[in-house]
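Need residues for this backbone.
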């Protein structure tokens, strides 16, 4: 990240201050809410001084970005409003915009049949790239969609550049570019098509066929799908030496690729537009979840025709609930998405997620006057009277007004309301959701709420109300081995072996958060032949320990002993080794199972196993060698008793 002011580079300061700049630039011209900033800068645990630090960073940046601004003069670059901070898109120029303009110019030249001009545009656009987009904050969920969008536009521009190289007759150059491209992105079907055509035109028919067949095998093994018809058609044409595959100089007129033969003509060429969502296929950020996305698309379609729906997305921490809903939002351009998040790291006023939802709705519906209760919520007047009949009447009046406003707005255009991290919502927000659920079925609303499965107890009353509204559920589990391999290959920009993918899957249980963190440290140790010794990344260790500590000291002790015993253990042996009375151990182990940290063996009574091997690894690593040896001796002594479960093979 660099900043240039009046032609001179400026110092953007400490790492967190640079993260703040990156976050603001990623949403140029849009207000970035304060809670989003806190979450991006301090992840799950902002310190008490976070707001003071944030205000200090903003003040520092204003001095750096506007060095000539007089004291007390209005700022022209970094503005403040009642929702957060905004980097002015009229006074700040970013190279992302330049890239998009040049890439768009390349596609426009391509579509009017000028491959030379298209090549110039694509090369100029790609020359602006010098690394990944927004590396300072690329792992923040609030920037992930923009990073994915830019990454997809970049890959699309590379494919456009290679198509233009083919059109002007630079086949050997195109082969070199495309071979490197396909090694980094092996699932790009358009890239595969271009590489096969380039190899054929370069006189390498056998290599062209090998590329197509490798792609066909990979798609079948990893994704369970067949190549698209254009690739199958290209294979037949290469085998028959179809004249349409031969290169001919492109005359003025239609797109040169359309004249190259029916195979490539079948490829739809899109013109990227500024701030369009990332296309669905082959992004480097999102893998799998096809069934969940289909279900969400189905209920969204039902809601769009007047059969409103409520759907919940649940799963353990890191399983990808938020990422799934953001991906769904990208793929639902016909709907207006109203996003409300329930942060757990800072105290929020009542109805905080609904305030976000209503603010977005009001921004899309500028022609209507806001009802008084809705305006009050947007103005921050979310306090309600104390208890009593008056309080109940006031609450009901406010809720009725909000529900009527949203259901009426959905009659103009279908609306998707997303309530993320619902288990962290305040009681008033949950009551409003329950009230809205009663009116959803007769509207064009889809209400999608995500929550942690181990926090479902906080939603007991709300879940009953949602069930009466014919709620459907999406329960997310870990990614499969094929999806793990696809994710690792995308992140590492090379093909990862199935054995390595299986090792990653075994250690993480397919949890996407654990996977992404482990993949970052996996590359170097895999190349050295020590993949199984990749250390547990610090973010994973912190999440695991946080989940265990929430269950109390007895659970921590039982799990620590179980980690010494091995991935699978008998609870009576572990309880005796941990000096925990068996009745208490059984009560606690039920809570651990409910939290998703272990699972019960359905074949052997009293046996359990860790859901993720990483959990056992983390707990094992927190103990010193002497304690490990002491516990192992106790485990062996307990297992040796004739009435205890045999655990020797896992302990050894």
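Answer:
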């Amino acid at each position: 990240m660099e900043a240039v002011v009046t032609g001179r580079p400026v110092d953007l300061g400490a790492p967190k201050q640079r993260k703040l700049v990156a976050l603001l630039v990623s949403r140029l011209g849009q207000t970035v809410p304060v809670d989003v900033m806190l979450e991006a800068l301090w992840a799950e645990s902002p310190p008490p001084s976070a707001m003071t630090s944030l205000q200090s960073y903003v003040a520092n940046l204003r001095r750096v970005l506007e060095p000539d601004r007089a004291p007390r003069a209005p700022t022209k670059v970094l503005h403040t409003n009642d929702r957060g901070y905004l980097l002015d898109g009229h006074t700040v120029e970013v190279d992302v915009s330049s890239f998009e303009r040049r890439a768009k110019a390349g596609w426009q030249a391509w579509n009017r049949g000028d491959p030379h001009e298209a090549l110039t545009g694509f090369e100029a656009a790609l020359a602006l790239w010098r690394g990944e987009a927004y590396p300072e904050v690329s792992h923040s969920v609030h920037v992930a969609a923009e990073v994915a969008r830019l990454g997809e536009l970049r890959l699309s521009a590379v494919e456009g550049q290679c198509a233009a190289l083919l059109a002007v007759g630079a086949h050997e150059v195109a082969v070199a570019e495309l071979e490197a491209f396909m090694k980094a992105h092996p699932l790009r079907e358009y890239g595969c098509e271009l590489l096969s055509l380039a190899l054929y035109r370069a006189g390498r028919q056998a290599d062209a066929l090998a590329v197509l067949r490798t792609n066909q095998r990979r798609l079948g093994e990893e994704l369970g799908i067949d190549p698209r018809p254009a690739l199958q058609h290209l294979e037949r044409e290469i085998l028959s030496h179809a004249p349409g595959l031969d290169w001919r100089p492109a005359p003025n007129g239609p797109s040169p690729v359309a004249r190259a033969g029916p195979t490539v003509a079948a490829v739809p060429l899109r013109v990227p537009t500024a701030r369009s969502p990332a296309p669905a296929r082959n992004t480097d950020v999102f893998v799998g979840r096809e069934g969940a996305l289909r279900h969400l698309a189905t209920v969204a379609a039902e809601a769009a025709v007047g059969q409103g729906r409520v759907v919940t997305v649940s799963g353990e921490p890191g399983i990808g609930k938020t990422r799934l809903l953001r991906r769904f939002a990208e793929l639902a351009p016909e709907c207006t998405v109203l996003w409300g998040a329930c942060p757990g790291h800072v105290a929020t006023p009542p109805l905080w997620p609904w305030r976000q939802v209503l603010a977005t709705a009001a921004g899309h519906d500028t022609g209507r006057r806001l009802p008084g209760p809705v305006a009050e919520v947007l103005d921050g007047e979310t306090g309600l009277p104390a208890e009593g009949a008056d309080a109940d009447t006031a609450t009901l009046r406010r809720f009725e007004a909000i529900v009527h406003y949203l259901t009426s707005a959905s009659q103009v255009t279908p609306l998707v309301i997303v309530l993320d991290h619902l288990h962290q919502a305040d009681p008033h927000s949950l009551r409003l959701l329950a009230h809205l659920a009663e009116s959803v079925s007769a509207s064009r609303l889809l209400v999608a709420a995500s929550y942690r499965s181990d926090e479902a107890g906080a939603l007991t009353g709300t879940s009953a109300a949602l069930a009466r509204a014919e709620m459907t559920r999406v329960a997310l589990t870990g990614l499969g081995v094929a999806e793990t391999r696809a994710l690792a290959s995308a992140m590492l920009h090379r093909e990862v072996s199935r054995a390595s993918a299986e090792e990653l899957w075994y250690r993480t249980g397919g949890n996407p958060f654990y996977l992404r963190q482990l993949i970052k440290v996996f590359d170097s140790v895999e190349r050295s032949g020590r993949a199984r010794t990749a250390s547990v990344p610090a973010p994973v260790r912190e999440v695991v320990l946080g989940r265990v500590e929430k269950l109390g000291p007895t659970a921590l002790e039982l799990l620590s002993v179980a980690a010494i015993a091995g991935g699978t253990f008998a609870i009576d042996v572990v309880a005796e080794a941990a000096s925990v009375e068996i009745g208490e151990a059984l009560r606690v182990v039920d809570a651990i199972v409910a939290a998703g940290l272990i699972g019960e063996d359905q074949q052997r009574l009293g046996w359990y196993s860790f859901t993720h091997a990483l959990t056992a690894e983390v707990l094992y690593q927190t103990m010193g060698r002497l304690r490990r040896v002491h516990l192992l001796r106790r485990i062996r002594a307990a297992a040796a008793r004739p009435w205890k479960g045999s655990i020797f093979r896992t302990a050894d």
